[in-house]
Hints:
alpha+beta, two-stranded antiparallel ribbon
Amino acid sequence: MDKFKTMLIGVSALFLVxxxxxxxxxxxxxxxxxxxxxYLLLNGKKYTESDLKENGEYQKARKNYVESLGQVFxxxxxxxxxxxxxxSQNLSKDELMKKNISPPTDSEIATIYEQxxxxxxxxxxxxxxxxxxxxxxxxxxxxxxxxxLEKYKLEVHTEKPPRMVVDEKNNPSLGPKDAKxxxxxxxxxxxxYCSRSQEVNKAIREKYEGKVRWVFRDYPLPFHKxxxxxxxxxxxxxxQDKYWSVFEKMFQNTGTLTEEKVIDxxxxxxxxxxxxxxxxxxxxxxxxxxxxxxxxxxxGVNGTPAFFINGIMVEGAxxxxxxxxxxxxxxx
Length: 332
């Protein structure tokens, strides 16, 4: 039942995300005004936001600010349109919501139960009823709010968040070099969220085949002690044109990538040879990975996975829709 409730909450969250009005497409790096009241004094010398414009953490902070501000406007607007609608019907807010959001019927509850029955682990309809009712009430409230947004033509406009400059560094890539969209992924073979995101990543490459170039950059996290060797091995596989098949097998085995398991993967690809064994000993390979980590940190990456869609940062294992909304704007 806990798994079922979590699944329903997840579906509800995705529906509510759908209600959020998208901010304008992200463009250039934020250009702070010269009269900003935010500054640092160090030994009498003044440093302003202009001195931070190339700093990844600063650009990330600006991005988060703009996104948060947009959400604040969105929430404020939702409350205002509810108030307007309630006033037009001479009702209180609570009366308006009760009038337009009716409790789910037995038929609706049964339909949801049948839809998710296989995930209920034998739970009866009556056992699942409270969670299903909660889910349906959230859905109905979301639909009503969306109808009000459309009726009152609510739009959120904010400044354009930053676009970061991210170097490919000759890292492994898929897709044409002249693709209109370049997605650079910073990821860790031992990260469960990174592994989970691969299904969405594949869906993006399939849907936008020929339009997207996908670049992978190494970002093994320090607390994933087995990850570094896996990344070294993958980079050595790249030198024998076996990178992407090894890449896929690495993520299929996230959480179990001992050195022995990594060697098994390399052997299954037929490249556990002298060239590979010499390669994994080459300090330059680990150096390349460390450079990826440092570049990621300079861009504000502090967890995995992290993606940059034409320089627009997307953090975490996100649904396909989170990528589509940006990609579609970039393709226009």
